[in-house]
Amino acid sequence: MYTLSREGWNTRTMVKVSVLGVISFVLMFFEIPLVWLAPPFIKIDISDLPALIGAFAMGPMVGVIIQLLKNVLNVVIEGSTTGGIGEFANFVVGSAFAYTAGFVYFKKKTFNRAVIGLVLGTIVMTIVISIANYYIMFPFYAKLFGWPIENLVEMGTAVNSNIVDMKTMIIYAIVPFNLLKGTLLTAITILIYKKVSPLLHN
Questions:
Q1: I need a labelling partner for 29 at 20 to 30 A (CA). Which of 23, 44, 77, 136 fits?
Q2: Is 6 contained in some domain?
Q3: Hey, how many other C-beta atoms are within 10 angstroms of the C-beta on 192?
Q4: What are the CA-CA distances from residue 13 to residues 54, 56, 58, 117 (Å)?
Q5: Tens of pLDDT along 15-45?
Q6: Does 37 reside within a domain?
Q7: Overall domain count for the chain
Q8: Residues 106, 59: contact at Cβ < 8 Å?
Q9: Taking the model in full, what pTM does it have?
Q10: 53 exposed, middle or buried (CB, 10 Å; 0-12, 13-18, 19+)?
């Protein structure tokens, strides 16, 4: 079993987790659509980064808690246009990424295991979000905004002519988008973790 941190779930740990949660929430505002890869309503951000750093430094469950804080703050401060469904999906997907990466790395802290954990986390995240979008999120959004599901498909077709239905939307837009996002987060985590980890361990 993993504890939340080596020092226990004390005030210092809670402060660290809270700060990372707030940073993660702020990073949600800096999102960019990749219109050459996916429809414009799908945007990339690096708000999962603090959860990855927390999972590496203090254990995989810390990454999950940071993801929870991020999405709770988003609902409380910004409100939700999806009745909390979008935030819940963001929490599940982000937690799958952070927990997987943190679980692999925290067991034995080496550079190779960090890379393996982040790669596996990217794969798990991509699988989870692909399933969630196909069965839950896209049908929900179509119903919420009163759009035929074909409207979402058409947005994808405008980006990639290979997208002709929901399955091809997942294959040609969702999967490559999240693989790219995971690769970006992997690179940033590897570059900065050793520089910021002393702040979390002291």
A1: 136
A2: no
A3: 12
A4: 10, 14, 9, 23
A5: 899 999 999 999 999 999 888 888 888 889 9
A6: no
A7: 1
A8: yes
A9: 0.88
A10: buried
